[in-house]
Amino acid sequence: MTKLYCLPHAGGTPAGYRTWIKALAPEIEVVPLQHPRPSDDEPLSLQEAAESVVEQCETDEDFAFFGHSLGAVIAFEAVRALSGPPRRLFVCGSAVPPVEASRGRDLRSLPDREFLQEVARLGGLPPEIHADAELRQEFLPGLRADYTLAETYEYHEGPPIPCPVSAFRGLSDGHVDKDGLRRWGEFTTADVTAREVPGDHFPLRTSATFLHRAIRKDLAA
């Protein structure tokens, strides 16, 4: 059995992978993880968050990573921090790390209303959160902390990771195009598989069945 450690998008939680546990059983054990988040009292780099993720994993067993958006970059840095590679790295809705590090945004410093409006415009605010003021306030601290991780991320050159990469994007996701997905091949010594699925920046909601099928196929290869 392969353990699949799953990391959420900015503002997301491990609960987003709850339905995956049953859907991918029994061949794959889904283990949703929460990366640590920075605060005013405890600054945190994305690499430090990735190292904390590694500490939550049982890396002496058969395992893989799945990360969505911010979670994909954290998963990549987690693989770099490991002494031994996972079976495979699955990334969804993310350009390659140097591109993510160079986006040059500074949304985290905006007032709450403007911050949420800008995140929504970029497609990073789930519809149910956008429509509910109470949910938005609950969602806001984690989202702002995650944007701090993303916007202060500094990519450091290093050797390619020694495991295959499976990269996904929603067909209408403006965050990364198919050429951007293929660029993940520049960051691994193994193979890269790029796939487009129906949906936008959140294909985990609209194309979970497709993702599950692809995950099973790639882990069985």
Automatic annotation (TrEMBL):
GO BP, one annotated term: lipid biosynthetic process
Coiled coil: none
SUPFAM superfamilies (UniProt xref): alpha/beta-Hydrolases
Pfam families reported in the protein's UniProt record: Thioesterase
Keywords: Hydrolase
InterPro entries: AB_hydrolase_fold, TEII, Thioesterase
GO MF term set: hydrolase activity
Domain (Thioesterase) ranges: 3-213
Statement: the UniProt record of this protein carries the keyword Transmembrane helix: no
Statement: the UniProt record of this protein carries the keyword Chloroplast: no
Superkingdom of origin organism: Bacteria
Protein family according to the UniProt entry: Belongs to the thioesterase family.
Name of this protein: Oleoyl-(Acyl-carrier-protein) hydrolase
Organism: Amycolatopsis decaplanina DSM 44594
Record lineage: Bacteria, Bacillati, Actinomycetota, Actinomycetes, Pseudonocardiales
